Structure formats: C-alpha cells, structure tokens
User: Fold E2F transcription factor 8 from Caligus rogercresseyi.
Amino acid sequence: MKKTIQIFPRTESSSNQEPPFFKKKNSSNTTIFLLDKKINMSKNKRYGGASRKTRSIGLTCERICSRFPLFIESKESWEVSVDSVVRTLNASKGSVYEIFHVLEGILVVSKIGTKVYRWNGFQPLRTVLSFLQVIGRDCMGLEARMRRVKQHELSNLVERSKVKIITDADEEVEDAIDRSFLSSGGDDSSNDANGNIHILEACQQFVMIFLLAPDPKVITLEYAAKIIYGTNLSVQGVQSRTRRLCDMANVLTSLPIPFIEK
Assistant:
C-alpha cells in the first residue's frame, strides 16, 4: 500500500525549521546533466534584471517545487491541492493553475481529481523529453511547421524591406503596409485552428520546439507562438500568445532541474 503524503497547508511563518519532506538546495548554483547537455544555472543568471512582476510566477513555482523531493520512493504518493497552495503561499489561483498545467505537460505532476494533483517527481523527465521529441518529429511534423514559419517570417522581412525603400518618404503608407504584413496569413494553413489550444498542449509543443530546433537552440517567444498557434493571428493575438509563452518559460526555467535557459 502506498503512503499518501499531503504537503500543504503549512504556513511559512510557523517555523524556521523545515519539515523532513522539505528538499532544499544548499547552493544557488546547480549543475545538471540532462539529455547529454550540461547546463550551469544560478538564480541571478536565470532571472537577470527581470522585474518582480515578471518573475513572480517563476518564484511561485520554485516555492512549490521546493516542498517536494526531486525523486520519490515507489511506495509513496505525494498529493497537493490547488486551493491549499493558493492559501498557503498567498499566490494567485490563475498562476498556480498555470504552473500545474506546465508541470502536468512534462509529467512532473498528474491530475487525479478536481483541483488535486499527484507529484511524480523528476525521475521520468528524461523519458518524457525523449517521448515529446519523437512525437513532435514523427507524429506532428513540427520540424516542417518550424521551417514554414521561418520562411514566412523571412519573406515578410524581405517584403517589408522593399516597401520601406519604395515608400520611405511616406511613413503613413509604410506603417499601414507593415501592419498588413504582420497580421496576414502564412503558408501554415493546417495550424489555423490552434489559436485556442489548451495550455497543457501548448506547453508540450513549446518544449518540442526546443528539442527539435538546431543548435544553438535559441528561440524567440514570438517565433514559438507562431509555430504553436499559427501565423494567421492579429498583432494583438501574437502579443497575447507570446505573453502566455513567457509565463510558461518562467515556470520551466525555475524548475530545480531546468532544461531551458532564459
């Protein structure tokens, strides 16, 4: 029989001494090996000069993850509810839900009931990432979609450059053409309906993009948004999806075993 362990609630001010289940790194620097890649991370490097508002979801994710072990015993079952996290950490319910959706996307947690999740730990992470890489490449054709979006962006850049030369003296016309290009549809018509895909699926595709991208695997959030949600988005639509991906990235980079670096 599995031993069920419930982490929350526990008030942070109740004691300076952490309970036995609380796993905390002794150093702010962590060196990890994942998918044959060596990543050196530190809190200062990971967050840089970002404002507290920008990195708050990442800090909330760190506080949640710090209360669970990286690897769990097979006879244990660690469970947590969204409401208890919100109450204990005084966090936004929307942010907590978003964090758990991202963690669920890489199987660090599994949903087992209404607002209740089971903590799986990071044992399956390598397998999950390998699985996502295969799914993205062989089942979803994500590499071809990435190439089409890149070609679409390059074509728009060339066309806008031509327009700028021709209409350099007429800023009003130039701005109108730029807006037209930014909101125009691309070649990826198969992705038109992706504008409202669930955050869990969006997170998985976001990770797939990094796994399938050629070295040095540097991806802009706007580029990723167009791959995931399609190129037939308005300027406001691209900005909205980019902000969502920014939150996902903050969660992923705040994990105790990060595999994406900002």
